[in-house]
Amino acid sequence: MCDIYGSFTGIKEQLYKQLRHPYFIKYIEEPYVDEEKLALLYSLLKNANVHSEQVKHYVVTIMLVQIALDTHERVSVKKDIETDGFHKRRQLTVLAGDYYSGLYYYLLSMNHDILLIRALAAGIKEINEQKIKLYQQTYETIDDIVCSIKTIESALIEKVCDHFHLESFKPFVQDVLAINRMKKEYVCYQQINETPIFEAWKKICSKEDELESVYKEWLVKAEAQIESNLQTHLETKELISILQKTTRSD
User: Is the pLDDT reported for residue 135 higher than 50?
Assistant: First the structure.
């Protein structure tokens, strides 16, 4: 257990070291690191019996591209704060996303991981297509929205599952990350009554109370699906065990 804690902590430290560019730290917020995805990647690669040094390499590089996507998504589109400082921070945030993406390509190319680069590039394409769809709000059903969220949240890790022959974990990854995202969006929706995901839900649900009930019904079914997955896939239970150990190490 100590070995798991130490390895995971070491990977986190290596990732944050790569992210700490002194100029960006001075002018923009520290990049958001989705530690649930970090722990999932670590757990999956441990299940794939990848050598510990390679686990560190893959987790850090794949998280860099995830952080690049998240950083670009954080770029504000508000027009009510037109100041020089605002424009500078916005431009630097875009540049930071490009910088993290460049680091990812550099680190993977150093290992000649051409097949993985191609797989992740396909995942990035799928994510961006669904982000465009989310902002266009062109959905007809709640299931369509959920499918978009699953792709946005899990496409990169699903490509990792394919690359390392861990396909049986993909349904679990989809459900866990979709639930995590929806819970965060729901909290945000309750606070400011406006998020792209729940704006899309509102266009399908005719009343506010209907939206609440549909969301809660979906959440119950999604969590039940995870429990069902755990009962039928022993390897997923092992993944959960490692995941819980790594997240508790904080």
Answer: yes
